[in-house]
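Practice problem: predict the structure.
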Amino acid sequence: MKILTIADQEEKILWDYFRPGQLDDVDLILSAGDLDPRYLSFLVTMAKCPLLYVHGNHDGHYDYTPPEGCFCIEDEIFLWKGIRILGLGGSIRYNPGPHQYSQREMDFRCKKLYWKLKKHKGFDILLTHSPAFGLGDDPSSASHIGFQAFNRLLDQYQPAYMVHGHVHLNYGYQLPRQRSYGPTTVVNACGRWEIQL
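Answer:
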């Protein structure tokens, strides 16, 4: 299964310079947040597959103009062709804006998923906006600290992938696009990145 992951920055090659058929071999699109809802609506219209998304910390406008034809999977496990995708959007709280959480609040969100996780026997992909603590975050920046609750989810359920955004790769952080955490491949989807499952 070919999965296109996207986050944070609209890619001109997928929007301004889009070519018909460009997404024909993509089986699923995962958005890790902070993207124009019109961009997501365009991609799902041009693709022959679902587009799943979680909110970034700059996605307050989704309340008024949600991406059309796309599935929000906040606090849900979405099943697609046997693949279980768990969605947990938002970032660490650093100002009064929307979709921001303290470490304790995110921990509570994760604990509330207990019965869904039990029913589905875990998950294969964790789709988030923020990274896990120490796995592609920037602890020196108050707005880019990762969530410790995500580390606990990875430790307990050992999914194949964690896909996140939030930490832009062009900010000069010198972070890798992919890294391993036990059996999990952690992917920063900033811009776009393809994974195979």
